[in-house]
Amino acid sequence: MKVTIIGGAGRMGRWFINYFLKGGHDITISDKRSEEAKAISQSVNVRLARNNIEAVKDAEIIIVSTPINVTPKVLREISEKIPKSATVMEISSLKSQVMFELRKIAKSGIKTLSIHPLFGPGTTEAFEERVALVPVLNADYELRLAKTIFPKTQLVVVDVEEHDRAMALTLSLPHFMNIVFASVVGQEDINALKKLGGPTFTIQLALSEGVMSENPLLYSSIQIDNKFTTQMLERFISNANTLKQHITEKKSEGFLQFFSNTRTLLLKDNEFDAAYEKMYKILEVLKEK
């Protein structure tokens, strides 16, 4: 099968190159980062197109793996040149901005998929992970189509609004928390703190450093381009200020009540009772590194 990956020099683009190479597919990539793209094409022996238009010619699967704010433009650019038998798939972390252009392509009779891999490019398993599938026009048909391309994947079907709201909680909020945590801890002697830190600090530091090692442009877009982000951050800061007030005013009863109420909310999670054990399993993995 002829697979084109637009944005093939990016980290997720490279992940998809590896995935489709393992399936024995014929791969073409394009990327504005010409030197990086050239190096990748030579290292893994895939074809490098001069531009996106050339890349989509004769393609059977077209994967758009570009920054969130660039994806609509790329879809517009290639829309008139997509082979009628091809499947166009975009993988952005936010869907509200891209869905208009993708639906225009779908209504022209071209097969389309909007997916969001719920993992990072550091994942080594052959797509045995969870992937969100956001319906473009026909959820049932698109689910069947996605399963033919990614047969081992656990596909989670979710609409645009629900997806982006969930991303404000599962991406924007954790990233925000970790960036702020890193900004405070980074002003201290981190190596000294690591000698004194317990499991909570060790795991939190690993999370924060992982976040801070990522592409800042991507993380900026995840925060700024999601219309639900500000709402979730305001809730977080409001709750943080409430808890801070209990601490500042030395109100143990208020702190304990806040803790108890929050714990009760988390009991809705069926795996809550296993959380403490999971924390130590994570710690053991970190110690092995």
Topology:
Elements: E1 2-6, H1 11-22, E2 26-30, H2 34-44, E3 47-48, H3 52-56, E4 61-64, H4 71-78, E5 87-90, H5 99-107, E6 111-117, E7 130-133, H6 139-149, E8 154-157, H7 160-185, H8 190-196, H9 199-212, H10 216-224, H11 229-248, H12 252-266, H13 275-288
Parallel strand pairs: 1-2, 1-4, 2-3, 4-5, 5-6, 7-8
Antiparallel strand pairs: 6-7
Helix pairs in contact: 7-9, 7-11, 9-13
Describe the structure in your own words.
There is one protein chain. It contains 13 helices and eight strands. It has helices spanning 11-22, 34-44, 52-56, 71-78, 99-107, 139-149, 160-185, 190-196, 199-212, 216-224, 229-248, 252-266, 275-288; strands at residues 2-6, 26-30, 47-48, 61-64, 87-90, 111-117, 130-133, 154-157. The protein folds into two domains: 2-158, NAD(P)-binding Rossmann-like Domain (Rossmann fold, 3-Layer(aba) Sandwich); 162-288, 6-phosphogluconate dehydrogenase C-terminal fold (Orthogonal Bundle). Helices cover 56% and strands 12% of the residues. The protein has an eight-stranded mixed beta sheet with strand order 3-2-1-4-5-6-7-8, sandwiched between helices. Helix 7 (160-185) packs across helix 9. By secondary structure, the chain is α/β, with parallel strands linked by helices. The radius of gyration is 22 Å and the shape is elongated.
